[in-house]
Amino acid sequence: MSSPAQRPPIAVIGAGYVGLVTAAGFAELGSEVWCVDIDAERIARLRAGEVPIHEPGLEPLLAKNAQRLHFSTQLADALEFARLLFVAVGTPPTHSGDADLTAVNEVVDAMPTSERHALVMKSTVPCGTGATIQRSFSERGKTAIAYVSCPEFLKEGVAVKDFFNPDRVVVGDSGTWAGAAVVELYAPLRAPIVRTDVASAEMIKLAANAFLATKISFINEIANVCEETGADVTEVARGVGLDERIGPKFLHAGIGFGGSCFGKDVSALKLLAANSGYHFQLLNAVIEVNELQKRRVITKLLKNLDDGLAGKRVALLGLAFKPNTDDMRGASSIVLAGRLLAEGADVRAYDPVAEAAARELMPNLSYCDSALDAANDADAVILVTEWPEFIELDWERMAGAMRGRLVIDGRNALDPGVVLAAGLSYEGIGRGRPAEASEPRRDAGAPASGAAS
Ligand code: UGA
Description:
There is one protein chain. The protein is an alpha/beta fold. Helices cover 42% and strands 12% of the residues. The chain has a six-stranded parallel β-sheet, with helices on both faces. The chain has a six-stranded parallel β-sheet with strand order 11-10-9-12-13-14. A two-stranded parallel sheet has the order 7-8. Helix 9 crosses helix 11 and helix 11 runs antiparallel to helix 12. The longest helix has 32 residues. Uridine-5'-diphosphate-glucuronic acid binds next to helix 9.
């Protein structure tokens, strides 16, 4: 990486996980960064050195670069110092499933007429948004504001690492100074740069997320067929993933994908296609498979427990949509816990960091201080999120705490042999013959158990 001296100043609008990681990352590369958010409380906390989200590595990175990071609620502060304004505000789904561009439009509306500034769109927006924004600039006499689409590919939980090691950086523009400036800004990372037009950059983002979601729904369907045929999906994924054309990543079967991105972006792409008169059939199946997958654990419980779920005590290990985050958006645990409560089960839950966020969504769960506490007198334990501490659990002690024997591994992250050796019964997702699954493997190349990517 080049010396962090004399990098151009930038602004980041939106202090969510993408905005903060982007701000901290560019500050580390040497830029002065103005980070703007309309949430005054969030800005006050950031100014006080508090980090409002759980993202590994973010807090030390912000602290290390505190001198170069400036937090404000005023866009004007950023406009004074920075020419490139990275937009990293939320685009949640509307009730109709389209992306809600309210926050993006507020930024666009707040932009003054300026030849100095460029909007660099990091927020995920439907293909065509950049053209609409540029049209609205020109209608309001703000044509000189440059526009770049620079979609974000960070994964929550490893976002800081991803910032410094991108697979690629996509820069979509119409040949303005701003596109070249964004390329220059990313140059120290030595990542492949995809320089393209705005619409293609927007579509790359949606297509990438839709493809990854499709890969997960595909392996989940294979897992479901494995359950009928006696095959083990972890073995199947290993054998399939060694094909370089397919690759081992995102082939981990489980109880469905969650998060704020895949569901939203698959649905947004489907509707984008529909709005242009095209029926994107494949994506319907991706969404439907995922919804059903979240509910398969209920079927497994009913199959293994006598007399239904009413009055049964069920322990959920993990609530966040994936490990190393406190993000509950789209988490499979929400569907699972909701179904269990509806069936009359007593649900005890433990998550190492997501409890506060989960309590807001699911006040009726009994929240516990540890996995062992959650397992107390449980008829069944379900691994929902593969936090590292669950992979290393002492299953002898867990067995001693439980009143039942059933362990459902919703992420295929546990070693079935260890669970079985503790006198418990093990049921994974698509692992046909769990008792055999802990036999030594004859060859290498298995995707790391439980690792999502
Ligand atoms: C996803 C993309 O991976 C990022 O590239 C993108 O920038 C981001 O969305 C976004 O658009 O903002 P993220 O949602 O943070 O990132 O998390 P992922 O690691 O992709 O996992 C998403 C979900 O898929 C999780 O619930 C995870 O448990 C599940 N998953 C992942 C599987 O069930 N199986 C897998 O093999 C991989």
